[in-house]
């Protein structure tokens, strides 16, 4: 099969425009977009999605044939971790297709050992230039942990508490930072704080992720998807810088990038 050729000129303005279509295909061994361009591609895809202009790229049999013969590392432009919630269809909401996004899904989009390892694979082996921690409104995992912290929890199956225990510090910080917010009203704040917690957990346990960000080869960014209307609110990148600096000053951070 004759490989499609990536369009040679793509401007950032085009990528951000609502009317701009997606890059049609990337030839094998093609250079990846820069982190900023990759983020612009994700934003443009979501803009198409919420305005009913999705183009459903890379979803045909030709792309399947590529997937069977080519390396995803030559194509994927983003790693995304999000919740397992069925209301968050990653490729659809970014108007992306096969081999475009390296997706990690787990309840509460937590970043524990398994997830951090998956991120490392996405950044260091699939060579995606951006990693997105994508939280979402009405998150059941964050809601359950919030209720537990507030004393309104209910019995959970044995494997769920250790799955979502990473969310506990986020909920407690949200409560501490917003003493005037009570009950279920704290949940949206906890959902956002959980993204920051995940970012900190990743940087604490993944030296290679820190190094890729510090070198400018990759960016880590947070975002919140609204399940009711499809829009994404992007967290300012300054927050990533702040969290990375906090971790770099923490002597307990992991230092050995490679497994022994």
Protein described:
The N and C termini lie far apart (42 Å). The chain is α/β, with parallel strands linked by helices. The chain has one domain: Beta-carbonic Anhydrase, Chain A (3-Layer(aba) Sandwich). It has helices spanning 12-16, 35-50, 61-69, 90-93, 113-124, 140-149, 160-164, 168-177, 187-205, 207-214, 237-248, and strands at 78-82, 101-105, 130-136, 219-225, 232-234. Strands 2-1-3-4-5 form a five-stranded mixed sheet, sandwiched between helices.
User: What class would the helix/strand composition place it in?
Assistant: alpha/beta
Strand order of the largest sheet: 2-1-3-4-5
CATH superfamily: Carbonic anhydrase
Kindly estimate the percentage of residues that lie in beta strands according to DSSP.
5-15%
What's the total helix number?
Answer: 11
Biggest sheet layout: 5 strands, mixed
Q: List the helices and strands in order.
A: HHHEHEHEHHHHHEEH
**Number of E-type strands:** 5
The domain count comes to 1
| CATH architectural label | 3-Layer(aba) Sandwich
Mean pLDDT: 90
Fraction of helical residues = 40-55%
As for the CATH topology, it is: Beta-carbonic Anhydrase, Chain A
Q: Note the overall shape.
A: globular
Nearest-angstrom radius of gyration? 19 Å
The CATH first-level class comes to Alpha Beta
Low-confidence stretches: 1-28
First and last CA, distance: 42 Å
Structure summarized in a few sentences:
The protein has 260 residues and is of the alpha/beta class. 42% of the residues lie in helices and 10% in strands. The chain has one domain (12-248): 3-Layer(aba) Sandwich (Beta-carbonic Anhydrase, Chain A), CATH 3.40.1050.
